[in-house]
Design brief:
heterodimer, A: alpha+beta, Ubiquitin-like (UB roll), 2 domains, five-stranded mixed beta sheet, two-stranded antiparallel ribbon, 7 strands, B: alpha/beta, four-stranded antiparallel beta sheet, 16 helices
């Protein structure tokens, strides 16, 4: 039997394994809005006991399931891969399911608001249609010419690596809705659409780069970006969004992909 | 109420639904109804890979893959279907690559492949590299690629539409599909979709367990809609518990981690899988590994203060390999456990993962109303369906394959059916059942809460019908579910509004979970043997004489309105493989 000693537990592992959950009391301060009830949005405080190792999404569920069933938000996977639950948590765009209570100063009220720049429909639910329209507008699919090969197209590991970062996008809108340019003008494609254009422009198999670059050269395209880096800070997948936008700008100048 | 007319309606926009949509849209006027925005679907959470005997990195062929699938499913697999799955796997992967999927590459620029549980060379000699992958984000890449191609093909989506009823109309003595009834989340309005063909691709039902890798939204809505209309559900007792979920949270850590060399260890640091599966070790099939983990825990070799988990050890793998091949799961360990997988082992436990059973179909995706009869115009594919290619236990990477092979088949078959058939006339007042359901929940002044009933359901399922089962534990679950179903009649919601009423829909979803949990437990009680994911401590052996057959569960209502479940059985399709003892 291959046995390896695991005696040298790190403090982090010991903490992760400590079964006893100690509950603390937090205040969730949620921006609520339901036009069926009132025309104006308002802040509502909820006091709940919670284990600080739990997620903000768990806290929202506690409110919905134990206090007020009308609190409305989108969620699905609960571990940061589906992109449903982007929201402003303490003034910063994050996924509620990837943010642990202990990491956001639970001593003070935790503010929860819908992401900005998209129409609020109810509580934390915003209209995602303009966001997905901008995505569709950049032709986010592989464009090729000529006959299809019988086997796979070849691509070197280095060419595959070239666009790896932007394949990680989950379309949560945390980046686009953190962008001051987008807040001021919803016509701007926004970072997420440009990220998804980048994913194809820098894919060695793709032959639609010219068309896509032309779309992004538009007055509502990449040139609106003011490199404030909000998008990069907001991305829950760690995509270097601003860098991707800069690469698209450079490709437009040199027209060399 | 609005009425829409489409040739083909697809329910669900995960991998199977979108793969079907790409085919159906080219051939017929198609609508996709989905309760989530398509890119939110749980296909995106799949990690490790998609099986296909491409033989890009070592010798392999589809016959070996067929055998592994049948053996993995403990001989409950329909062998004709498994052969189709393995044969069509190769084109399914190549199609995705041509659609743009960014697979990892070999040094020659081909699609790279890695080892996965239960996939072997030459009928069990050793692990084979068959899983095509994109880091540990293969499902994400499949979901994105299929959505991108739906955008390209102009697929018409109805986002945040919940399908709550299947319309069946009897014409000339044959039950036919007439369409579906959907609830629009944004407005609370009901929509009837009259369609020549309907495809269910609405995913699994794992949310009746507490520790699960499944999304909150996986509540068996498709299974429940057809079951309530008298159609059977097949093999519902077979549920897969994935060996490596994050302890207590259930978040999936891919088997690819063991494919890359990760090792399971108990509190003594022992590589315990050597005892249970001498050849495949940590890469034995999932049911085998999950039972081994719980055996270690039960015998006092579990880790942590309560000895209730084991470790997934990646610390001997180079950090560069973890960064390149397993970036997401290592990040999950950092985010949710606060540990560093370069240096710390990861606390894990089995997590409820995948329903092998579901809506019975043939290999064209046509839904069956009994052991042989097809329901004209009704199709199903993916986790919601039971073809059955997974039998009693699915192999890792065969589900991403299943959704592509059978999603495509169902999309083509449904659109072709729509071409050669007319609409079935809608029944009078087609939305009646959903109207009543919604009104009853909205107007209820009952005293029960959705969250209380749901958490009690999850507790009883985890305690009684998980990896180890006995007659006594299953009976306890059946009794508890019966009690919860009674209490559910008295459930009330707080949100009485029309707009984005997720409070109402959680109540509807709970009703689905309760119905399906009961089917699962009753099916499990009747199966007095152990096979694949269904392990009965009171009947620890496989019994091919009495139980090499599929369970078919039907809902029945007697003249006084009392509901019951009737069980029937369907023979397994066996072609070239004789059942053998299953060892890894």
């Amino acid at each position: 039997m291959s046995t390896q000693t695991l005696d040298n537990h790190s403090a982090a592992l010991d903490a992760a394994e400590s079964a006893a959950s100690h509950l603390i009391t937090i205040v969730l301060r949620v921006r609520r809005f339901n036009p069926e009830v009132a025309a104006e949005a308002q802040w509502v405080d909820y006091q709940i006991p919670i284990d600080p190792k739990e997620r903000v999404l768990d806290a929202l569920h506690k409110v919905k399931w134990e206090i007020d069933g009308s609190l409305t938000f989108r969620r699905s996977c609960a571990h940061g891969v589906c992109g449903s639950d982007a929201m402003r948590i303490n003034g910063r765009n994050r996924l509620a399911c990837k943010t642990l209570i202990k990491d956001i100063n639970p001593e003070k009220p935790i503010t929860i608001e819908p992401i900005k720049g998209l129409t609020v429909l109810k509580d934390l639910v915003v209209d995602m249609d303009p966001f997905f329209q901008a995505y569709r507008d950049v032709m986010p699919f592989l464009i090729t010419k000529g006959n299809e090969p019988t086997r796979e197209r070849l691509q070197s590991a280095a060419d595959r690596e070239r666009f790896d970062d932007t394949t990680k996008c989950i379309l949560c809108a945390a980046c686009t809705s953190s962008c001051p340019v987008f807040w001021n003008d919803g016509q701007y494609f926004g970072p997420a659409a440009i990220v998804n254009a980048h994913r194809f422009i820098f894919d060695s198999r793709d032959e639609g780069g010219e068309q896509r670059l032309e779309i992004l050269n538009d007055k509502d395209g990449v040139w609106r970006c003011r490199t404030t880096f909000n998008c990069t800070d907001a991305c829950p997948r760690g995509i270097e969004v601003t860098k991707a936008i800069q690469e698209v700008k450079r490709a437009l100048i040199t027209r060399r992909i | 109420m609005q009425i829409h007319k489409y040739d083909t309606v697809i329910v669900g926009a995960g991998g199977a639904g979108m793969r079907a949509a790409i085919e159906a849209t080219k051939r017929s006027r198609t609508a996709v109804l989905t309760k989530l925005y398509p890119t939110r679907s749980h296909t995106g959470a799949a990690q490790g890979g998609m099986a296909a005997a491409l033989a890009n990195v070592e010798e392999d062929n589809w016959e070996w893959h067929t055998f592994d699938t049948i053996k993995g499913g403990d001989y409950l697999v329909d062998q004709d279907a498994a052969e189709i799955l393995a044969k069509e796997a190769i084109d399914a992967v190549l199609d995705l690559e041509k659609m743009g999927l960014p697979f990892n590459r070999t040094p020659e620029g081909r699609i790279d492949q890695r080892r996965f549980g239960g996939h072997t060379r030459n009928h069990g000699e050793a692990a084979v590299r068959r899983a095509c992958y994109a880091a540990d984000r293969t499902g994400h890449m499949i979901l994105q690629t299929l959505y991108q191609n739906c955008v390209k093909e102009g697929v018409e989506f109805f986002n945040e539409f919940y399908v709550l009823d299947q319309l069946l109309v009897e014409v000339d003595g044959v039950k036919r599909s007439a369409g579906v009834v959907a609830y629009e989340l944004a407005t609370g309005e009901l929509h009837v979709f009259q369609a020549k063909a309907v495809i269910y691709a609405s995913g699994g039902t794992g949310k009746f367990f507490k520790v699960t890798s499944n999304a909150h939204t996986l509540t068996g809505d498709g299974q429940a809609a057809v079951y309530r209309r008298g159609l059977p559900l097949e093999d519902m007792e077979f549920f897969q518990f994935h060996p490596t979920g994050i302890w207590r949270m259930g978040i999936l850590l891919t088997e690819g981690a063991r494919g890359e060399g990760g090792i399971l260890r108990n509190k003594d640091g022992e590589r315990f899988m050597e005892k249970y599966a001498p050849v495949m070790k940590d890469l034995a099939s999932r049911d085998v590994v999950s039972r081994a983990i719980y055996t270690e825990i039960r015998e006092g070799r579990g880790c942590g203060p309560d000895g209730d988990h084991v470790y997934l050890d990646l610390t001997h793998l180079p950090p560069e390999q973890l960064d390149a091949k397993l970036p997401d799961i290592t990040e999950f360990a950092r985010t949710y456990l606060g540990i560093e997988p370069y240096t710390d082992p990861i606390p894990i436990q089995p997590t409820a993962h995948y329903a092998m059973g579901g809506i019975p179909t043939n290999v064209q995706g046509e839904v069956l109303s009994d052991n042989i009869t097809v329901v004209p115009g009704l199709y199903a594919a993916g986790e919601v369906a039971c073809v059955s290619v997974h039998g009693a236990n699915r192999l890792g990477t065969n589900s991403l394959l299943d959704i592509n092979v059978f999603g495509r088949r169902a999309g083509i078959a449904a659109a072709e059916y729509a071409h050669s058939h007319d609409f079935v006339e809608l029944p009078e007042d087609p939305a009646a059942l959903v109207t009543d359901l919604v009104a009853r929940l909205r107007e209820s002044d009952g005293t029960e809460r959705v969250a209380d009933i749901r958490s009690e359901l999850q507790e009883t399922m985890d305690a009684n019908v998980m990896v180890f089962r006995t007659e006594q534990t299953i009976k306890t679950a059946v009794e508890k579910i019966g009690e919860l179903r009674e209490r559910y009649r008295n459930v009330a919601i707080q949100d009485k509004g029309k707009r984005f009423n997720t409070d109402l829909l959680e109540a509807v979803e709970l009703g689905n979970l309760l119905d399906l949990a009961e089917v699962m437990a009753v099916s499990a009680l009747a199966r007095k043997e152990s096979r694949g994911g269904h392990y009965r401590e009171d009947y620890p052996n496989r019994d091919d004489v009495n139980f090499m057959r599929h369970t078919m569960a039907y809902r029945e209502t007697d003249s006084t309105g009392v509901e019951s479940i009737r069980l029937d059985y369907k023979p397994v399709v066996q072609t070239r493989y004789q059942p053998m003892e299953r060892k890894y």
